[in-house]
Structures are given as structure tokens and as C-alpha cells.
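Operator note (shift B, R.M.): manual run for Beta-xylanase requested after the automated queue skipped it. Running by hand, logging everything below so the morning shift can see what happened. Input copied straight from the record, untouched. If output looks odd, do not overwrite the archive copy; leave it for review.
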Amino acid sequence: MAKLSVLLGVLAFASVSLAQLAVLAELNRKLYFGTATDNPELSNASYVRQLSNTLDFHQLTPANSMKWDATEPERGVFNFTGGDQIVSQAERHGQIMRGHNCVWHNQLPDWVTAGNFDNATLLSIVENHCGTLVGHYKGRIFSTATNIALLLNFSNRRLGCPQWYNSASSVKLLVAYLSLTEIFNDDGTFRQTVFFNTTGTAYIKTALRAARKADPHAKLYINDFNIEGSGPKATAVANLVKELRAEGVPIDGIGVQSHLIVGEVPTTMQQNLQFLASTGAEVALTELDIRMTLPNTPALTEQQTKDYDTVITACKNVERCIGVTLWDWTDKFSWVPGTFAGQGDACPWDDNFNKKPAYFGIVKGWLGQKA
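Run finished. Output pasted below as returned.
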């Protein structure tokens, strides 16, 4: 710890323009700082050059190419071409890989949503899908969300894990899957989906068990939004994780998506991350961006910078918060404008791949005094 303090002290006096995000995260004993990416973006050479910069990004998540519609468009017919491309991108640069995802109510092919399957048949479909997906990437992914997640090619420049983290220092391949994604409503009740309406909560256990069987070393996550601050949804997630662990159902982590709004970061975020970690699971910020209503202004830029600082500080101060993933790093490829009309500028780099003040908000968060 003395060595870590000295290193952080040196960085604090250095120009923040020289600091890089993955380095700072790992100096704070996190496993990674990373980003999501998507296959069409990989044709942009300038984008790929920065995506491959492991000093900023030591982890990748495929935004779409491991989802159900991409991987099993027809029943029993699997296609891993898109996912393989992103995994290969990560492997070439020694980056960790998180899988995304096994079971989600969106981006499902029609054969799943309109199949009118009975309970037993749909459970067998979930089991086969999750087992085949996780099995295909066995040993190559850190975690997958059901939304279960996978980590891959963890480079040996890592400075060391917290004592609670059960991982040998020589391990270079970790696996995590965001296995189960967005299974709760904001009031803490279960979301009405084809899976819940047909099987109740049985599909949750089926997905997790199938994933664990397919890759016993994969970290399995439940992943959701609007659980950044205290509230009924976060409580429901925590209660489910505790119930699953009590029953011996494999669940290793909670993914806190962190699609946030400028000026509206929950004041209880650090407290809530600690609450989620008190379940015995690790936690990770899995899809971080902080959007604003356009046009941007100096005041909004200043607040966004502070908000990124606040979020990073919250993860830094919670030991079991293992890492942070941006939901892409540049506004050029952000999902926000296409989903939230009139909103955008959510990422730490602009459309031209220039660092924004938000980038230095992240730096400040990692460099700030630990609580």
C-alpha cells in the first residue's frame, strides 16, 4: 500500500494530460478500465487505434454481437462471427473481455418472442442458448450478464488484486458474462418478459447454471440500470443475489450499468455500491456514460466533468467494485442520440476523437483522496 500511495502521489503532481485511464484504475487496485465497442466501428482505423490503447482501455465489451438475435437468429443455428471479431481484437492487444449477454428481453429473434413455447421447452431453449454461447468462449471471457460477463487476456502488468479477490496473480485469462440483464422494473417487481411470463423466475437459475456448467471459471453477473442509487430496484437486485447465493445458484457479480444524466448522479451512489457489494458479490460499472440535453454549454461541460469524477470516486472507494466500462468512448459512436431525442455528448471523447473535460474528470476521480 505504501508503494501504491507513492505512485499515486507522483501522478497527482504530474500533468493530467499524461495520465491514462486503465493505468490509473489499476494503480487503485481495480482489475480494469475499459469500453464497449461494436463491429461497424472496427472499420475506422483512427477509432481502432485508440480502442487498442491499453493504457486507456484494458477491457472490451461487445455492444451487440453476443446478444441473442446476433448469436442464435434461428433456433439451434448459432453465429459467432461478430463476437469472434471483437474477442480477437481484444486478444491481439491483451485486453480483458466481458461477454454481453446471455438473456435479455430486447434484441430477441421472433422465434423466441412469438414461439408460444411452454415452460419446459422455453427453459430448455434458455439452457441451450446460454450453455452454447458461454461454451463457445470458454476461457476467453471474464464475465457475462444474464447479462453474464467474460474477462480475457488480463495482462501481467496488473499491480495486484484485493485480498478478497480469488485469483492467482499468474492468471492471464479471466472470464465474465453479463448473464441476466434488466430483469426488474424500477419498483423492484420482476419485468414482464417472454421468459418471466412463461417460466416465472426459473429461467434465471437455468441460465446461470447452464453458463457455469459451460465454463466453470466464468464470472456470472446480473446487470441492470437505475440501480446506481438506493431504491427499490437496487434492493430487489440485492435480495435476488442473496437468495441465489443461499440456494447455491452460481452468481458472482452485479453489473451497475450507469447510464446517467448530467447533474443527476445519485448522491447515494457510493453507499449503494457498498450495499450491493454487501451481498458477497463483486460489483462493476458496466455501461457508463453521462448524457446531457443539447446544445452543450460551458456549465453542462463543467457539471459533466464533476459527475464523471463523482462516479469514478464512488467505485474507487468501494473495494469490491472491480472496474469500470464506458458504453463506448467517443460521441461519434454513442448510442445516446439515437435513443434519447435531443440528448448526447455523453462520452469522454468527442466526435473527432479528442479528449473532453470529462476525460479529466475520470482522471481526477482516480487521483483523488480515497475516503
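Quick read of the result: The CA atoms of residues 38 and 64 lie 7 Å apart. The longest strand covers residues 282-293.
Leaving this for review. - R.M.
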